[in-house]
C-alpha cells in the first residue's frame, strides 16, 4: 500500500456512492420510503433500470409458480411466467420486494466501484448475489429487527459503510492478514452503536438514531489506518493499547498521533465527507475521543461527543459492573462526563441491556 496522504483524492472518491445508490440508501434511512420513491430513482438512471429488469427477469423465469421465501438476505420474489409482457418499473420492484430492490441497487453500485463495471455476463445476464456485498449491513439490520429496536434501516446504512470498506480493500492482498482485526473493529462498532443508542434513550436531549450511527461510525477510521499503515502495524499497536487498561483514552490519542502523525478519527471522519448520507456526523466522529474540541463551539455536538466517548469506553471494556462502586466505572470516566447527568445505576442498566442482545 502506498504512503497515505489526504491529498490523494483517489483514495477517497470510491466512497461516493453515486446518485442512484445514495438516494436509495437515504430514502430507507428516512423510513417513509415507498415503491414510488424507488421508481423515481430507477427511472432517473437507465443503466440501473435496465440491470434491474434483467435481474428480475432472470429470477422470475426460473420459478414460474409459487412465491419463493427469502433466503440469505435476498427478499422474496413473486414469480411470473416468461410469456408475460415487460413490466413497468413499479412492477419490477413489487416482484423483487422493497428490501430486495434496495439490496440489489447497492450491490450493483459496490460492484462497479470495485470492479470498474457492472456484473453482466457475456450472455447479458446480471450475475450478482446482493447478500455477498452487504454482510455487515444485513447483520446490523437483523440485530435491530430481531431485538425489536427502532431504526434498523439506519443500522443497515452504517453497515453499508463497513461493507464498502471491506470490498474496496479486499482487492489488496494485505487485507487477508487483517481479517481478524476487521471482525474485531466491526464488533466494537456494533457495541458502541448499541450503547450510544441506549444511552440516548435515557439521557434527555439526544436522538437515538443519530447516536447509533455516530457510535458505529466512530470506528470508521480504524480499518483505513490498519491498511495504510500496515507496515507500521497499526492493528497491533491499537490492540496492544486496548489490552493496557492503565493507559487512559486521551493518552492513547496522544500516542497514536505521535506514532502515525494522525489518529483514526482524522481519516474516518474525512471519508464520511465522501459517503454523503452521513456527512453531518463528521464533527462528532472527528472529536469523539476529544470532546473538548467542540466545547464552546458546538454545544449539541460537544454533548454528543461526550456521550459517544462514554459509549466507546463501555464497549471497550464490555463488562457489567457488579454494583455502583465497581472499579470498571473508572475506565468509563471522562472529565466532561458530568454534563450528561447520568446515574451509575442507569449505566448498569444500559450495559446489561446491550449485553443481552441476541
Description of the molecule:
The chain is an all-alpha fold. It has two domains: 115 residues, no CATH class; 221 residues, Orthogonal Bundle (Hypothetical protein af1432). 59% of the residues lie in helices and 0% in strands. The protein has 18 helices and no strands. The protein is globular. About 7% of the residues have low confidence.
Labels describing this entry:
358 residues, mainly alpha, Hypothetical protein af1432, 59% helix
In a few lines, what is going on in this structure?
The protein has about 350 residues and is an all-alpha fold. Helix content is about 60%, strand content about 0%.
Number of alpha- plus pi-helical segments: 18
Assign a percent range to the helix content.
Answer: 55-70%
How big is the Rg?
A: 22 Å
CATH C-level of the largest domain: Mainly Alpha
